[in-house]
C-alpha cells in the first residue's frame, strides 16, 4: 500500500498542486483516503482532454465504472483503483465523478455556461460529499451550501472549456455563497469540515481574482493562513 500511496502522491502533485497541498491538512489517520479521492478525481477529470476520439474516452470511463462497481477489486493493478476500493466510498458518488465527464466527450462546439453548470452540478457536489465521507461525516447532516461549494469548485475547473469570463463570474457567485456559509458556522463545526473546504477557499480566491494570478508563495501562504484561522 505504501508503494501505491507514493504513486498517488507523485501523480497528484504533478496533476493538481492545490489538491496535493490541501490533502496534507487532512488528519493523519484519514489522509490516505483523501489522497485516494483527490488522485482518482484528477485522473478521471483528465480523460476528456487526453483523448482524440470520443469513443476512446467513453471506453476509458467505462473501465472506471467496471472496476469501481458494486464490488470493486482492491487487488486491481491500478493504484488508483486499489486505493479507492480499499476506502469503500459511496458507489453512487464515485459514479457521478465518472458519468459527469460524458458530456465533455460529446461536445462538438464550445459549451455554454448552462451546459458547463449542468456538468458541474453532477460532479462537484458528489466530490464534496466524498470529501466529507473521508472525514467520517455524513453529507445528509451537512449544510445546503455544500452543494454550492461543489458546483463552484467544478465550474472553475471547467472554465477554460467555455466562455471563461462568464463561467468564472458564475463560479465566483457559487463559491462566495459557500464561503460565507462556512465562515458563519460555529467554530467547532468549521474545525470538522475544514480539511474538505480548504480547497474551496483557495478556489474562491482564484475565481475572485481571475484573470490575475498571485505568486505561488503568496498562494501557499493563504492556504496556511486559512488552516491556522479555521476560516476559508
What does this entry look like structurally?
The structure is a single chain. The chain is mainly α and 232 residues long. Helix 3 packs across helix 6. The model has no long low-confidence stretch (mean pLDDT 91). It has one domain: Farnesyl Diphosphate Synthase, CATH 1.10.600.
Strand-pairing-aware structural class: mainly alpha
Mean of residue pLDDT values:
91
Q: What series of H and E elements makes up the topology?
A: HHHHHHHHHHHHH
Give the helix level as a range of percent: over 70%
The total of beta strands comes to: 0
Counting H and I runs of at least 4 residues, what is the number of helices?
13
CATH architecture: Orthogonal Bundle
Beta-strand proportion: under 5%
Q: Examine the coordinates and then state which fold CATH places here, giving the name of the CATH topology.
A: Farnesyl Diphosphate Synthase
- Distance, first to last CA: 32 Å
Largest sheet: none
CATH superfamily: Farnesyl Diphosphate Synthase
Q: Using only CA atoms, what is the Rg? A: 17 Å
Amino acid at each position: 500500500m505504501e508503494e501505491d500511496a507514493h504513486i498517488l502522491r507523485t501523480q497528484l502533485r504533478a496533476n493538481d498542486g492545490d489538491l496535493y497541498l490541501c490533502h496534507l491538512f487532512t488528519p493523519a489517520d484519514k489522509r490516505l483516503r483523501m489522497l485516494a479521492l483527490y488522485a482518482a478525481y484528477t485522473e478521471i477529470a483528465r480523460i476528456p482532454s487526453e483523448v482524440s476520439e470520443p469513443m476512446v474516452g467513453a471506453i476509458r470511463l467505462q473501465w472506471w465504472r467496471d472496476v469501481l462497481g458494486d464490488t470493486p477489486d482492491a487487488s486491481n493493478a491500478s493504484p488508483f483503483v486499489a486505493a479507492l476500493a480499499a476506502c469503500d466510498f459511496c458507489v453512487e458518488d464515485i459514479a457521478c465523478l465518472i458519468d459527469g465527464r460524458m458530456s465533455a466527450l460529446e461536445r462538438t462546439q464550445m459549451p455554454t455556461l448552462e451546459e458547463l453548470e449542468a456538468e458541474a452540478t453532477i460532479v462537484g457536489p458528489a466530490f464534496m460529499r466524498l470529501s466529507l465521507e473521508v472525514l467520517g461525516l455524513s453529507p445528509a447532516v451537512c449544510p445546503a451550501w455544500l452543494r454550492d461549494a461543489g458546483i463552484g469548485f467544478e465550474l472553475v475547473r471547467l472554465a477554460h472549456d467555455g466562455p471563461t469570463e462568464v463561467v468564472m463570474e458564475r463560479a465566483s457567485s457559487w463559491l462566495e455563497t459557500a464561503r460565507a456559509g462556512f465562515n458563519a458556522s460555529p467554530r467547532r463545526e468549521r474545525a470538522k469540515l475544514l480539511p474538505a473546504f480548504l480547497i474551496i477557499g483557495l478556489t474562491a480566491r482564484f475565481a475572485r481574482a481571475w484573470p490575475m494570478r498571485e505568486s505561488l508563495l503568496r498562494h501557499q501562504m493563504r492556504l496556511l493562513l486559512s488552516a491556522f484561522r479555521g476560516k476559508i
